[in-house]
Write the structure tokens for this entry.
Amino acid sequence: MKKTIGKRLTGIGAICLATMLVVAGCGASSTTTGAAAGGDKVVKIGFFGPLSGDAATDGVHAKNGAELAVDQINAQGGVKGVKLQLVAEDDQASSKDALNAVQKLIEQEKVSALVSGSYSGPTKTVNPIVQKSKVPMVVSYAVHPDITKGGDYIYRAIYTADVQGDAMAEYAQSELGLKKFAVLSQDNDYGVSIQQAFTAKVKELGGSVPVSRSFKSGDKDFNPLLTAIKGAGVDAIYVAGYYNEAAQICQQAKQLGVNVPVLGSDGFDSPKLIELGGASTEGVTFTTPFNRDEPRDVVKNFVKTYKEKFKEDPDMTAAQTYDSVELIAQAMKTGSDTESIAKGLSQTKDFEGVTGNISFNAQHEAVKPVIFVKVDQGKFVFVKSISTK
Amino acid sequence: MFWQQILNGLTLGSAYILIALGLTMVYGILNLLHFAHGTVYMVGAFSSMVAIIYLKLPFPLAFLLAMVLAGLVGILIERIAYRPLRNAHPINILISGIGITIILENLFRLFFGAQTRPFPNVNLSSKTYGLGNGLSITNFQIYILVTAVVLVGLLQILIKRTKVGTALVATSQDMKAAKLMGIDINRMVALTFFLGSALAAAAGTLVALYFNAIYPTMGSMPGLKAFSVVVLGGLGSIPGTIIGGLFLGVIESLGAGYVQTVIDANAIAFVILILVLLIKPTGLFGKKIEKV
Amino acid sequence: MSKQIAVKGLEVSYGSVEAVKGIDLDVENGEIVTLIGANGAGKTSTLQAILGLERVKAGRVEYLGETITNQPTHRLVRRGLALVPEGRHVFPRLSVNDNLSLGAYTRSISKAELQRLKEKVFLLFPRLLERKQQMAGTLSGGEQQMLAIGRAMMLSPKVLLLDEPSMGLAPIVVKSIFQTLKRINEEEKLTILLVEQNAKMALGLAGRGYVMENGKIVLQGSTDILAHDPGVMKAYLGL
């Protein structure tokens, strides 16, 4: 009875305000870089990735890589006179947002090609509409096996989960002599697919995985998992996950006195790993497609120009996305419509990217070397490179 | 390894207690679910970081400054988001709290970026002390445990032994009667938000130091967990919150340590929340409803 | 004699419902005035409006000659206005002793003075002394009413406002409480404004009275005259 009309109105006002904020908070905005509408013929390339949210580091770096590639291609006059324009959408690493982003890029922006700068989950989700719309897409660094299936329009610039899972299992057993592994995997398509490949290969080679646990993106407390690992007495911990959680795992393992080597997947490949994990990341070895110390000109040029433009060292996602745009540009040489680009991509052979010489096989998967990198005195150091089939 | 998991759980639980006390105190005094409380935890961690990096304060001073700053932010949240709605429907208040959460998280994202940043270097390196039998504790865990004990103790002294504490208790028991005692209700509410927010800031800073990670959404999961703790302990009951926090921390640690991927550690809190709501809605230490 | 409280043209409403429709009322120094009327007549709203617990929509409230309309409750309490609310509102999970201490919350007094005030209350209500460490919520209704009055006395108020102190209590308890009110009024020269449904008891205690119906004062005067008014006798005294 004491509720006055005025108060009720304030309440309604608050709901409206809150709703507006929710909408404003979630609303994605697209950013456009590259050629402005001028006299030149312009082809739009759509990009989606996590530009905000927990995974923003990866998404922003991926976008940086794509931007750098577009700028450099345009500066050289474009592809046969055709300039590129990058239209970037934020998907917050969420499948729902990725679907909206890709729909917008295809239907409103009418892009001629797409670049996924996002994770496996979102990229897998957009697969059907991309295949159906017949817009060619290059996947920069999402590794789930299913991403390229179901049509001829999706190509992947990185090897699949099983390639790096297998490679690490072989390296750890035959070269490092480790037999008993604890596996911690990120609870998403990326982590699970790598964990499965790694575990299968370890068992095939006669090793064992007594402990295998999963964790969520954003988890901070790994003490319970590591305590269980400590009790199991393993030779090494293999983490199929990203740098944020990996840094916590390294740190808390040291604190708990779990003094076994930590091995990782390409999600480790970010300067953030060392920044967040500090000294505890010393000696960590992981697989990656990108060797920043390689003496090839393309790599040196990429590292130098990236540093100039963005004031930081490039990481794996930047390198992969840079290559993805370059692959599309390469494919455009025979024509800049969607069909020509798709055809061009299918014929890619020994393209020299910053992440190695790339060819696409019949399954639209990149064939290129797996690189092992180790943290040594606070720096990523090249260990070895193995070629894959 | 069982005792190690218990120790991990007690550390985690201590952090939960520091966050949940603010929620429980606010509920006790205003019967209000302070949804934006988790963000105050984040504000506390960022305040410490800013104080260390830009004001060049030593860690203990930065820690105290962050508690004060977050306390003021708490007061401000009450003034802007809750006071105008004091007699409105609880749903409106909840939505207002959600709105504040989104504003603050986005504001911090705008200023500091969405990425996880390391806690600034404060010359506190992690040390591990063996306690025998494979049991070990780190200095950061000790900081969290000791800080929780000290702050909860100080809060108890304030509430039980001071005049203003009695006024706070009186206000939570009967707001109308408290007014008739000459107690300025708005000041008591402000004090409650200040204290609760300062405790959350202490937790935010210590957890950020412990995990070496600061990011704008860091408060959302702890905020939700704190809700479970508060419901578990009986809404508005401080002893209940303390027991509830330790209970949840230990259960989560044991669950994550022993239960093979059947259930996610984060989900445990919410499973408990649902069970409590179904079986004993007043929580472990809930006061009986005295009047309608 | 000076006016302690003067109410002029007071109006209170809840949304579109008008509870008090422009009443005048005053209480002079040292007297006991009662405001009687049926449930829902607007008596409680009038008291709450004087104390700032309800918003005054129109009209004016004066206290000691000063306008205090719509001032916050806690400030009015500080200035010596005490209200014993309807339903007693003791703090249920605090001891009798703590309840009494809170009555003197706004006063900066020494521990000894606080103790002296409590002893005065225990003299008025010896039952409270026996229950000193008990939680207030465990007291009987009559004891809670004693505590509520005793707690108000801790303020050493200039005016004591009481809202339905007889509600829900056995007649013998009501009688004893009213005797104590009489005693307080005589010994301390305390001004009292008493809102009651129990017209018989109220008219017996007070010197002057107001009769309220549907938000308006319909009758006023000395309690002797009111008690013999045929309308009052029929409506409120059951005669």
Summary: Confidence is low (pLDDT under 50) at residues 1-28 of chain A. Chain A has twelve helices and 16 strands. Chain A has two domains: 31-159+294-368, 161-288.
